[in-house]
Each structure stands twice: as C-alpha cells, then as structure tokens.
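Because discrete structure vocabularies remain unfamiliar, we turn briefly to a single example record, giving the amino acid sequence and backbone structure tokens:
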Amino acid sequence: MSIWRVQGGYPLDGSVTIQGAKNAVLPVLAAAILAGSEVELTNVPRLRDVEASLDILRHLGCEAGRQDDVVNVDSRGLSGCRIPRELTGQMRSSVIFLGAILARCGQARIAMPGGCELGPRPVDLHLAAMKALGAEVSLEDGEIVCRADGLTGGHIELALPSVGASENAMIAACGAKGTTVITGAAREPEIVELQGFLRALGADVDGAGTDEVTVRGFSPVPNVGWRVMPDRIAAATVLCACACAGGTAELRGVEADHVAGVTEVLRAMGADVQAVSHRLRIRRQGRLRGGQTVVTRPYPGFPTDVQPLMMAASLKADGVTVFEENIFAGRYRQAGQMARLGAKIEISGRRAAVTGVERLHGAQVLAEDLRGGASLIIAGLGAEGETLVTDPGHVIRGYEDLDKVLNSLGARIDFTK
C-alpha cells in the first residue's frame, strides 16, 4: 500500500520534462514481438505497467532489459504463446499482446486481463478483429484462445473507436496475407505512434490519425530504434496541478496539439496557457472561473483520463463546472473522496456538477483507480493542511516519480511505498 502525504497551500513554480507515454509504449512493446528482431526503445518511463509488459515478454521467451530510460527487446527467441493470469492480472492492457502473439505464432492464449475497474471494458472488439482476419476464437478455462492457420487480410469494422482494439487490429494485420482495412479506428496520437513504429519494423501501413487505417504487408527488418512520444496525460496532470495549486509551470518535451482540448478548457477557466515550440507554459493567479461544461469524447475530444484531473482543478473555481462522462461509467469514483476535502459535487447519471468552494481542507482519502488517485493528489495541493492519499498502487502504474516531478515545482509531497 502506497501513501502520498500532500501538504497543500504551496503554489507551483519551475519547469519539468514530461515522461514518455505509458499508453504509447505498451502497444509498441507488444508489437516488438512481430518481427523476430532486436528493438531499442528510448524515453521509456519506469512504470509498473511497463515492467509488467517486460515480464510478459520474458515469459514468452524474449530477452528484455532496461538501463535508465532505454529498453532493449530481442524477440528472436520467442518460444511461448500463452500469458497466464499471474501476469495479465497486473494490468488491463495486457490484451494488447493478443494480436502480436497470434500473428507471430499462429495461436495465442491469454488469461482475462486485470487493471483499474472503471466499468465494463469488454474485449469483444479485439476478438472480432481477430475473427475478421480468419482466427478461430474461444474462451477456455478463463483464457482467451485464438488459433489461425495463417491470417488473411480483410475488412475490420470497429463498432466503437476503441484505442486498444484499433492497436490490436493493426498489429495482427501485419501478420496477415493481403490488405487489411480497419474502419471506425480510434484517432488518438498513440495510434499514430504505433503506425510509425510498425513502419520502422517494416510494415506498410497508413491512415493512422483518421478513422480508416490500411495495412498492406510486412517485410521485417532485423534492428529497430524508436523514441517513445511524450505522455499527453502526464502533461495534462501537471497543467491541472498548477491550475489547482496556483503559480506557474513550464512543461518541456510536450506536443501542444496532443493536449489542445485540455488547454482550451483551462484557458476558458482563466488560466494563461502559452505554447512555444515543444513547451507549454501555464500561469494561474487568482480564482479560476467555473461555468464550463467538460464533455469527454474520443480523440480529438476531451480525454476521459483527464476528466478526474480537471475536476480537481475546478473544485475551487468560481461558479459551477459541469462534467459529462461518455466513456467509462465508473469514472466519478474520485468525487466521493473529494467530498472529504470539502468539495461540493452532485452526480446524476453521466453528469457531475462541481460548485466551487472557497477552501478545501486536508483529509484522508483513498485512490480507487489510476487517474482518480492522481486527481486526489492534485486536490491536496489546493487544500489547506495535509491530505493523506492511501493508494493500493494505482498511481505508479501511470506516472514515473510523480512526487519528484511536482516537488521540483515547489509542491510538498512525501511518497512511501
């Protein structure tokens, strides 16, 4: 059990470099299986989910090691096609290995995944994509089983723009004969990142960033180097932390376009946010303005992962800020914990209305999921006194040294595992 002790009331000031993207590196690590080649990744964050992915690669017979922010994967010795429950239980996104193992081995067995419980996140779209490429799919003893005597390109139509299903379909299609067209694909920057990596591996793929992705073939190369993109959710976390605590912060190594929906809301609330090259600068003085309606939608809409973070920033805003959550049904878990700090939040179905208060006070709260936990740390920065966030380990799944990052800006956070 982790403990975050947050001393509130200290405005932020300084600059930080944004970590590599968790949601980009995980599918890239899975795709490293495809070619039977040596891959060197740089700017890889040190996160629990990343380490779990490396454990999975080793279990499958690959060599996988890390030094600082560099990860090397040699998948030439891949010898397994099954991922057991003790490994998939560590992270929900372990299902991303399904398409890669199937494409490389012709079969895959993966125990149903674990991770944050944010409401239903079925794997049907992933399985439908595998079926569209000619795989036989079944559920045996709590494991997803896929078999194919050679995958064949075809049309994969995603009923929802699922990021994970889009990535799994792209990866699996690299191992199929012929052309695969994926329609209804997610458009997130992480999809574009995966396309770039697959091209580096030798895939002929285009369309990422639109709702139609085409994979035409794959000619593996023996050695690949790749630098992981910056984490847009980590960037949004620092932006919302500064908006909540006040002060100024400069974010280095960030793609402003990737967080445009977030900075638009912050500007509307009265924060001064400026983009300069690969940097973002935020300044918040005085009280933020409420009156905004924040609606989560697939990219390029407002990210569901940032909704709890923006809620924390709005807790002391002048007026009412309304949130409408359209992605995950369980995404308001943090609201009940924020109430312990003195927040005024009313929830009705998918909508939450936050009435800004003059003051928040420190209290003991529980992190029930990754982004909800981060939002409580942010709220603690804007509260008076000490906020104690008890965390079963959610936050470190998505952030590398979040305490050190915020402390370098003047926050006072003591973190113990």
Summary: The domain at 2-19+230-416 is CATH 3.65.10.10 (UDP-n-acetylglucosamine1-carboxyvinyl-transferase; Chain).
